[in-house]
Structure formats: C-alpha cells, structure tokens
C-alpha cells in the first residue's frame, strides 16, 4: 500500500539575522507538516528579495546566478523526493536534507568507517591487535596525504587500483630508523587489516561493491627460527655474572619449557599453579592474544625456575611467579646474551615459543595435536607455522619405517 505525502519547497531569507542589509538565503522543505531548512550559502540584499516569486529582483549577472542556483536547488530537492517515492522508501524532510547535503550512507568516507571500526574493536580485541590496527591506519593516512594529496575519500571511490597503489606505497616505505623498506608479509598484513575495515563497511551497506572481491593476498613462506638442543643446553648452563642477564635468561628458558608467551608469563602468579589430572603441577592460564585457556603440565626445568624465584624479593614485590621486565628490555638484553653464549641467531623472546614447539616437544615425539593444545591454538594449521618438523625427526621416522619394511621383507622370504 502506497503512502501519500504532502511535499513542498519554499525559498526564504532570514531577515532576523541580517547584516549590512543582507540576509542569508534558505530552502525550506516540508513533508507532512515537518520542516527542515537548508542554508544555501548565499546572501541576498533584503530590498531585492521578491517575497511573491521567491526570487531576487534585477537583471545583473550576480542576480541571474543566484536565481539560477535557486532553480537548480529546487530541481535537485524535487528529484530526491521523487527517487525516495519511486523506491517506496521512508520520506522525511530531514532525510531529503541529508541526501541533498551528501550526508546519506552513499557519502560515507574512508575515515568514517575507520572511526566506526575503531569504536567497534575498542572493547572486543586485545591491546596488541588494536595497536596493530592503529599502525595500519597511520599508513593509510600517509598514503592518502602523500599519494592522493587528500585526507579522505568516499568509500564509493575505493577500487582495485586503490588497493594496488596502497600496496606499492607500502612496499617502498622505509620506517624511521629502519635500513630496509617494509617486508612483503608485513605489507600483506596491513592490507589484510584494511580489508577487514572495508568488509565491515560492505556489511553495513555503506558501499555497494566490495573492492577486495578480486584481490588475493600472497604471503612468502617464513622460516621461524628456534634454538637447537645444543644451543638451548649452552644457554641453560652458561654462568652469567650480571644479574639482569641471568633473570632474562631464566624467563627465556621458562618459555622454552612451557611455550608461554612474554605477555602471559608476566601475569603468572601462584594461583595459576594447579594440580593436574595426573596429580602433578600444571600451569593454567588464558592467552592474552586469543583469550584461549591453556593447561600446561610443568616440566622439571620450568618448575626449578619457579622455585628459584619463590620468596625472592623481586617476585614478592610484584606478586608474580617470575621477575618482571619490559618486553623491550628483554629483547635488548637477549642480544647481549646471544653474543655471550655464542648464538648466531637473532635471539628474540618469541623464539622461546618456537623452541618449545620444535626442539622441546615436536622433535621429542609429542604429537602436533598435543603441541597445539599446549600453545593455546584453536587450529593445528596455526601450530604448523611454529612447530616445524626437524630433519632429525624426519630421519628418525624414516629409519623406523625402513626397519618395519625390512622385517616384512625378511618375513616374506622366510615363507617363500
């Protein structure tokens, strides 16, 4: 059933706020008795305004320009009304005004969806993820300013070329203090975050077409470094005379034997120690990054470190299981530790998690399903990034296979 509307357009000047005999020109839209005024950014001499024809009197070029503008505004307002009516949409004076001023959803901009997305993730994602989105937003703004010479664009202007140009911009960007441009996988991560923001705009129906429809991210295989059993042993047994290096080594080793990340280790306290199903001590915690709960049986070397700092002044103050240092300091000191121990790899704290997944667990026959649980992953595919199968493990598995096949061959010969 169609709804009937009363619709009218009236042009008028606001004489109550006139200055020097000039008053601002307005268009008044009335729909079903409800009004909305639109300022037309024109000032009219009061004595030249014809209240009957709603036009400016005179034949000058300026007068003709204003009257032509009035005609265009009237035609545009009527066009908007007809479009809404034809599409059987809600018709209000405020909605017509919004469409006239370009304030409807078709005029949403990239900055609009960035702000909306920022508010949406504020309380749903971890601090680290929010920070990463913030970095991506900074790159988007740099791209807009440097390459497009603007601060914002309409969402409807986004297309495949925009994404391709953004990729090119990132690939050639040198962060302050870095000797190299952003790596390929880093570039892909930023584009993935942009994609999530734009996908949100698509689902909100702020854009009609998804500009990422034909886009495919490409990631280069990355080699995740970890310590070998030999390197891990050297690190464990090295005698550090400097207290700060000793503490950092202990934190790193603890992660090597638990798989717990830095952000989760610094939050551990005695309440996280529980008695497991086997009657031994376990650590129960929740990963800050994903929110996934993890239960990890304590290996002897990890338990020794907990006991080392039990009733220790540094842990009594912080009420934690282990000493607390900032992630920046830990990674800085690890470089010093690597030199002292003779480790040639780029030693970072996250390498301890890789070491747990490979050298400590997988290479010792722990099934990848179990490793996945211990690391707090929801997908084994994620674990496979961390837990590379070592050449040694492949060799051992193949030797086991050879032995089995050899026995079968010998057995067949016996019965032949």
3D structure, described in words:
- The protein is α+β, with helices and mostly antiparallel strands and 416 residues long.
- The protein has three domains: 7-103, no CATH class; 107-203, DNA polymerase, domain 1, CATH 1.10.150; 229-395, hpI Integrase, Chain A, CATH 1.10.443.10.
- The chain is 50% helix and 13% strand.
- A three-stranded antiparallel beta sheet has the order 1-2-3. Strands 6-7-8 form a three-stranded antiparallel beta sheet.
- A hairpin with a 5-residue loop joins strand 6 (273-275) and strand 7.
- It is elongated and about 110 Å long.
Helical stretch count? 16
Low-confidence stretches: none
- CATH topology group of the largest domain: hpI Integrase, Chain A
Give the termini distance in whole angstroms.
90 Å
**Whole-number mean pLDDT:** 89
Helix content: 40-55%
Largest sheet: 3 strands, antiparallel
Rough shape? elongated
Q: What name goes with the CATH superfamily of the largest domain?
A: Intergrase catalytic core
Count the E strands: 8
Strand fraction? 5-15%
Strand arrangement, major sheet: 1-2-3
Secondary structure class reads: alpha+beta
SSE pattern:
EEEEEHHHHHHHHHEEEHHHHHHH
- CA-based gyration radius: 34 Å
């Amino acid at each position: 059933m169609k709804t009937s509307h009363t619709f009218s357009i009236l042009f008028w000047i606001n004489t109550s706020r006139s200055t020097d005999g000039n008053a601002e020109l307005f268009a008044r839209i009335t729909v079903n008795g409800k009004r909305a005024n639109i300022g037309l950014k024109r000032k009219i001499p009061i004595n030249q305004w014809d209240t009957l024809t709603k036009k400016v009197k005179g034949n000058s070029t300026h007068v003709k320009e204003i009257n032509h503008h009035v005609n265009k505004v009237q035609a545009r307002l009527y066009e908007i009304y007809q479009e809404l009516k034809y599409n059987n949409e809600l018709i209000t004076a405020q909605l017509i005004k919004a469409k006239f001023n370009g304030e409807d959803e078709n005029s949403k901009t990239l900055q609009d969806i960035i702000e909306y997305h920022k508010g949406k993730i504020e309380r749903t994602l971890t601090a680290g993820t929010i920070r990463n989105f913030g970095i991506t937003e900074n790159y988007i703004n740099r791209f807009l300013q440097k390459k497009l010479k603007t601060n914002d664009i309409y969402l409807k202007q986004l297309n495949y070329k925009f994404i391709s140009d953004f990729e090119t911009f990132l690939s050639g960007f040198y962060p302050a203090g870095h000797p190299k441009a952003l790596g390929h996988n880093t570039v892909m991560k930023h584009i993935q975050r942009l994609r999530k923001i734009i996908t949100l705009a698509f689902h909100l129906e702020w854009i009609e077409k998804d500009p990422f429809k034909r886009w495919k991210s490409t990631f280069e295989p990355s080699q995740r470094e970890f310590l070998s059993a030999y390197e891990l042993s050297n690190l464990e047994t090295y005698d550090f005379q400097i207290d700060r290096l000793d503490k950092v080594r202990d934190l790193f080793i603890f992660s090597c034997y638990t798989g717990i990340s830095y952000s989760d280790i610094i939050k551990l306290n005695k309440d996280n120690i529980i008695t497991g199903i086997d009657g031994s001590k376990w650590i129960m915690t929740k990963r800050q990054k994903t929110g996934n709960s993890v239960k990890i049986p304590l290996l002897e070397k990890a338990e020794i470190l907990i006991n080392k700092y039990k009733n220790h002044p540094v842990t009594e103050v912080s009420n934690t299981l282990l000493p607390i240092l900032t992630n920046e300091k830990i990674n800085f000191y690890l470089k010093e530790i690597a030199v002292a121990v003779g480790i040639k790899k780029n030693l970072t704290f996250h390498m301890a998690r890789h070491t747990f997944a490979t050298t400590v667990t997988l290479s010792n026959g722990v099934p990848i399903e179990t490793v996945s649980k211990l690391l707090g992953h929801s997908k084994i595919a994620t674990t496979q990034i961390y837990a590379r199968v070592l050449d040694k493990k492949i060799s051992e598995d193949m030797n086991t296979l050879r032995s089995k096949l050899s026995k079968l061959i010998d057995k067949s010969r016996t019965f032949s």
